[in-house]
């Protein structure tokens, strides 16, 4: 009986972790934002936006710099022209 209870708990844990997103989109965005700031771009000089894959602007005005939520969202970087 103890063996079947332990096995059931193990299977539930494995099944739950298989569907979990490793990093939330906000965590990934914050990490990318910090890297950009560390490279000398002022925080007021750019924006990062989380958008669903089907809403990514294909015009080239923005650059995809990351993805999250099992690659269902993209993180889009836009640098402002007046940034130094």
Molecular structure report:
The chain is of the alpha+beta class. The chain has one domain. The chain has two helices and three strands; from the N terminus they run ααβββ. Strand 2 and strand 3 (73-79) form a beta hairpin. The protein is flat and about 30 Å long.
Strand content: 15-25%
Distance between the termini: 67 Å
How many beta strands in the DSSP annotation?
Answer: 3
Cα-based radius of gyration, to the nearest Å: 19 Å
Low-confidence stretches: 1-22
DSSP helix fraction: 25-40%
Number of domains: 1
Q: What is the structural class? A: alpha+beta
Strand order of the largest sheet: 1-3-2
Mean pLDDT: 77
Query: How many helices in DSSP terms?
Result: 2
What pattern of helices and strands is seen along the backbone? HHEEE
Shape: flat
Main sheet: strands, sense, barrel = 3 strands, antiparallel
Features:
three-stranded antiparallel beta sheet, 84 residues, flat, alpha+beta
Please give a quick description of this structure.
This protein is an alpha+beta fold.
What is the topology?
Layout: H1 2-19, H2 25-38, E1 46-52, E2 63-68, E3 73-79
Antiparallel strand pairs: 1-3, 2-3
